[in-house]
């Protein structure tokens, strides 16, 4: 006999659970219907082992516990699990799906043992249950014959179990099904990634329509009506100058509108827009039709910058090379959805566009200015930004919000530290920062030859050994130890991929940034973040209405 000893409430509880629930759990898992007499004999045998005194303690503890139990919750699946505190509406649906999983395992066993009669019964019952369940998500969606189907499946499973049940074989089959399901999930995730990246790099039909209509109307204007007023402000260093490089008319309009609607002195703000030749007419026409309050605006075509050529710019030279064309258009071309998911991002048009790399040539584009605020076209401005021009950058070139946490968004995430050029010149733990809203001191830029530093690193990366893609990695290298950290409230990121940003953080931010695939002008945008962007669009505007743009 086991020696008796004082038993704590916890120990008593654990013993009760093991004593009374073990047969029930076995029944739930393996479908065994243990007779009450067998359960009693089990209890009796256990009681002999633990001793009479301990058993009396168990009984007393059970009686005391029963007094505190609410009889209203008895009969639920599991009294101790929080998720079962309320009645579930899909219990039968889940049970029928579990039956079908069990039936598939027995089908494999039946086929391997040449029990074709059982195999056929299982197959027929699975097909019947699938028809009954259909697309039901709740028990209320099930047809009246659902209980009959459950009963019929139970009978077939009981017959199969009686003739073929083998625990080791059963476990092997379950493992095989789990591995197969895991592989299917991985494949579906890859397909999902591929499709989301594909959606992110496409322009919706409505925005394409808007651009085309505006372009047609612009080129119908006589030349004298194509000019913007206040051109004398474009080189006035005492005003607040913005650089915005975009091929998306609607996105650019939101950036300009949101900036000026929150500006205290809009007449002192100057917007320098650069776009490509395809959208040059549309961008001009939009802002001619919708002049930005009292501010100054100017639109240029990147293709008119004749100095920006392959003999001067390494990235242009690389984009024209056969090796780069192979990398972007052949080697990375997927043959299936799942295989293409990891490569599609390398072929995103933004990585091939000089609009994306023009940020490294700001003094060349605006030689008369001493400071300029660079804005991405997937941001929304919510506060007056003029204090940024008075921010002391402490001799640095770039003012930006840092993005690193304890162990993420540091240099080793973006750069290849196995390469000696990187390892010898940079700290892998250095903090990353964000593009999207950056204050650049162009005087310091020229003194420190920032464009020359960029050219050096871009040339060294011709074989993509230092970083794979994008403008942030070369930006981190180029502005290393030349970046002044701004207060995080100036620029809140993640609205294009992070669903859990605190609402107060968003509403207190000066600039919010939809970086990521879920851009606010796409259907895959996160619904709860979209209103921050759409509030700056006039959906009653004739061009927007005619192109069927909707909130």
UniProtKB/TrEMBL annotation:
Compartment(s): Golgi apparatus membrane
Source domain of life: Eukaryota
First and last residue of the signal peptide: 1-31
GO annotation (BP), single: cell wall organization
Keyword Zinc-finger: no
Main localization (coarse): Golgi
Annotated membrane topology: Single-pass type II membrane protein
Pathway noted in the entry: Glycan metabolism; pectin biosynthesis
GO molecular function ontology, one term from the record: polygalacturonate 4-alpha-galacturonosyltransferase activity
EC number: 2.4.1.-
InterPro entries, A to Z: GAUT, Glyco_trans_8, Nucleotide-diphossugar_trans
Record's protein name: Hexosyltransferase
Organism: Dendrobium chrysotoxum (Orchid)
Lineage summary: Eukaryota, Viridiplantae, Streptophyta, Embryophyta, Tracheophyta
């Amino acid at each position: 006999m086991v020696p008796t000893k004082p038993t704590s409430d916890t120990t008593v509880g654990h013993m009760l659970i093991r004593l009374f629930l073990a047969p029930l759990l076995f029944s739930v898992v393996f479908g065994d219907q243990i007779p009450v007499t067998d359960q009693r004999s089990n209890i009796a045998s256990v009681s002999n082992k633990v001793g009479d005194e301990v058993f009396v303690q168990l009984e007393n503890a059970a009686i005391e516990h029963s007094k505190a139990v609410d009889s209203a919750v008895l009969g639920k699946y599991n009294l101790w699990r929080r998720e079962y505190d309320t009645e579930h509406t899909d219990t039968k649906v889940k049970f029928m799906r579990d039956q079908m999983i069990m039936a598939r395992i027995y089908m494999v066993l039946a086929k391997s043992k040449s029990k074709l009669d059982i195999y056929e019964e299982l197959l027929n019952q699975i097909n019947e249950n699938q028809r009954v369940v259909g697309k039901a998500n709740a028990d209320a969606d099930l047809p009246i014959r659902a209980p009959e189907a459950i009963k019929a499946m139970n009978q077939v499973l009981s017959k199969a179990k009686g003739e073929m049940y083998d625990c080791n074989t059963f476990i092997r089959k379950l493992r095989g099904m789990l591995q197969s399901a895991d592989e299917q999930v991985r494949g579906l995730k890859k397909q999902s990634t591929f499709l989301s990246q594909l959606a992110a790099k496409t322009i919706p039909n409505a925005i394409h329509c808007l651009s085309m209509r505006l372009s047609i109307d612009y080129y119908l204007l006589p030349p004298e009506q194509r000019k913007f007023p206040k051109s004398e402000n474009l080189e006035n260093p005492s005003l607040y100058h913005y650089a915005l490089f975009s091929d998306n008319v609607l996105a650019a309009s939101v950036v300009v509108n949101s900036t000026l609607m929150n500006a205290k002195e809009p007449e002192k703000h100057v917007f320098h827009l650069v776009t490509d030749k395809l959208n040059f007419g549309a961008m001009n026409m939009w802002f001619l039709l919708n002049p930005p309050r009292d501010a100054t605006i100017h639109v240029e075509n990147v293709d008119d910058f004749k100095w920006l050529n392959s003999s001067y710019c390494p990235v242009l030279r690389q984009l024209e090379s056969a090796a780069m064309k192979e990398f972007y258009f052949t080697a990375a071309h997927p043959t299936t959805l799942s295989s293409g998911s990891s490569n599609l991002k390398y072929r995103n048009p933004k990585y091939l566009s000089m609009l994306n790399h023009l940020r490294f040539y700001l003094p060349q584009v605006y030689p008369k200015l001493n400071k300029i605020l660079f804005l991405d076209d997937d941001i929304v401005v919510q506060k007056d930004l003029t204090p940024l021009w008075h921010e002391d950058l402490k001799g640095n070139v770039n003012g930006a919000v840092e993005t690193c946490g304890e162990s993420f968004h540091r240099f080793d995430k973006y750069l290849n530290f196995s390469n000696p050029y990187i390892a010898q010149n940079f700290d892998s733990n250095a903090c990353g920062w964000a593009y999207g809203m950056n204050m650049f001191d162009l005087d310091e830029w020229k003194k420190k030859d920032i464009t020359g530093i960029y050219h050096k690193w871009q040339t060294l990366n011709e074989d993509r050994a230092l970083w794979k893609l994008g403008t942030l990695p070369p930006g981190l290298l180029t502005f290393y130890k030349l970046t002044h950290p701004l207060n995080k409230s100036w620029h809140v990121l993640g609205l294009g991929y992070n669903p859990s940003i605190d609402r107060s953080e968003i509403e207190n931010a000066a600039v919010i940034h939809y970086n990521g695939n879920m851009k606010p002008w796409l259907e895959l945008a996160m619904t709860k973040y979209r209103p921050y962007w759409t509030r700056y669009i006039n959906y009653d505007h004739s061009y927007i209405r005619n192109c069927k743009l909707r909130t």
